[in-house]
């Protein structure tokens, strides 16, 4: 009952199958080859054209199966694995047509009724398929476009319109913590709150804390904060601003990363004066004092507040420019804070251990370490910030292969209170600040923070009803691409590496996974300093082609030239 077509050109499938025939749910290509002694370059081109052809006739949720002989694919699934340059680079060839490798398993000819392996050197004789692999590809979601986004938010008694920093455009207002959300970040928060409820009376903060913070932030490097520039037309509606009316003032990325004074405060030229400092909140701990001053705040009750926070930080798999923070806050009598801190830290530690044990069945090494044993430079961005703005006594440290050596996803400490009343001086605020994103990664075995923010439905489908499970990646062995950039640093200026990383995040749409300083040189005659960095591009959830990366690198070079005033070499 099947229709058989002969002499079909695999690179022009659309010419043989009419749209009326319907899209294919599955396309199989067993052991593609250009014929005779064709080299790897010709066979790569064959694969690239084949995948492009498949994209035109495959259903949206269809699959492309490609069987290759052992070693040809160039993925870690091959045993032994060929050098990348000597393989067919199948994942990179598929990426050009927006396909990702979602599964790979042994090719078993015995399971295919009537299959006969022939075609050795274009002859009617068999070839070796021992160790052959079947590669299963699916469509990828597209890379987010680089386009401005205007947002309106409440700040005190007024509404402020501003352009969202490009690196945060796809991360604003995602609603991961809303009641109808099945996202693992929300589940982790609810599970941890339930554990703490067994030891403390708990009350959730129902007020909506503003995403914007106004005023000076002591103890924090201001180059690590996302400062925003309000539009003069603060009352303009969002739709009008998005369409770019004549009176709208739009700011490019350059306005967010250059022209700061020696303290990191932003300066705007050409007559645009800033009379106030407004930023996206870098921590919920900034609101602790405000909450304590509320008349409804009851000493002895553990209050829970949560939401996304934003910080510029160097690129790494566990450095998050935006993450969800949960703060557990309690006011206790002076002299009781140490016992409360210890109890809070122990309960959180046991809760994390129990959640991880339930989901993965594996043991986890969770330690409670004194904050005084760390230098600020040793802490991750999350912990270093909290250590600077409050009195932290302990970090809950997790040692696991999934997250690297030792990640500090929670800090516990205290801060003084300034509350009206005769007993105000007798109270001390005890808090725990938890990075929910890092805990979700730990508990569900998610190796890359970017996966938490993916728009691909295959991520959330693995957590039905918010159930925590071990995550299985739907994009296997994504290709990586390496590019170097070398430049002269402006004379007399200190190079801002955080801004350098932030620009890389923006132009690459978060596809840069590593930035390494590989060379530093200073001319003895002039004192000029040259730096050379190596950027590695790789997407954890989307197809990323060599051509796309090349275009990103060119844009990156231009952006650092304009924003950081470097001289490219």
TrEMBL record:
Q: Which Pfam families match?
A: BMT5-like (PF10354), FDX-ACB (PF03147)
Q: Does the keyword Phosphoprotein apply?
A: no
Please give an example of a GO cellular component term from this record.
Answer: mitochondrial matrix
Which terms under GO biological process does the entry name? rRNA base methylation; translation
Enumerate the spans annotated as FDX-ACB domain: 476-569
Q: Which GO terms describe its molecular function?
A: ATP binding; phenylalanine-tRNA ligase activity; rRNA (uridine-N3-)-methyltransferase activity
**What's the catalysed reaction?**
tRNA(Phe) + L-phenylalanine + ATP = L-phenylalanyl-tRNA(Phe) + AMP + diphosphate + H(+)
E.C. designation(s): 6.1.1.20
For this UniProt record, the keywords arranged alphabetically read as follows:
Aminoacyl-tRNA synthetase, ATP-binding, Ligase, Mitochondrion, Nucleotide-binding, Protein biosynthesis, Transit peptide
Give the location in the cell: Mitochondrion matrix
For the protein in the UniProt heading, the enzyme class is: ligase
Main location group: mitochondrion
Q: Give the matching InterPro entries.
A: aa-tRNA-synth_II/BPL/LPL, BMT5-like, Fdx_antiC-bd, Fdx_antiC-bd_sf, SAM-dependent_MTases_sf
Superkingdom, taxonomy of origin: Eukaryota
The record, for SMART domains, names: FDX-ACB (SM00896)
Q: Which family does it belong to?
A: Belongs to the class-II aminoacyl-tRNA synthetase family.
- Identification of the protein by name: phenylalanine--tRNA ligase
Look up and give the organism this protein is from: Struthio camelus australis
Organism lineage reads as: Eukaryota, Metazoa, Chordata, Craniata, Vertebrata
